[in-house]
Amino acid sequence: xxxxxxxxxxxxxxxxxxxLRWAMEEAAHRGARVEAVLAYQKEPVVVPxxxxxxxxxxxxxxxxxxxxxxxxVRQVRGTMLHAPDVTECVVVGxxxxxxxxxxxxxxxxxxxxRGRGAVREFLxxxxxxxxxxxxxxxxxxxxxxATR
Length: 148
Fold this sequence. Notes:
about 150 residues; 5-stranded parallel sheet; 5 helices
């Protein structure tokens, strides 16, 4: 029998940390494994045209999504006793699309939401709304009140 997978979207926000923690606690109860997914948009590299290739603005800060995800997982695991292992997956592209595709092989999808705006607005925009419409498994949405 295959071990069930609890998929969780992580973006480094307080809400996604709460979702990751919830997923890890649920995995311990279900005997499931956790897969944390961070999706990001590839940022275009812009280098100003200056003599000899020197950048007068100094070094551009670089984002390291894999390190960002690993640090988030490590921090959340550090707050738990007997935390389960977490598989970390970084993908390039739209978070909702990747999570919906990965949900085909998951028992549960967990996402945090900032909960901005009215319910109608929430259901028409954002990663959480798109996951609710497109996921192929049950979806748990962790509200912002869970982070307080």
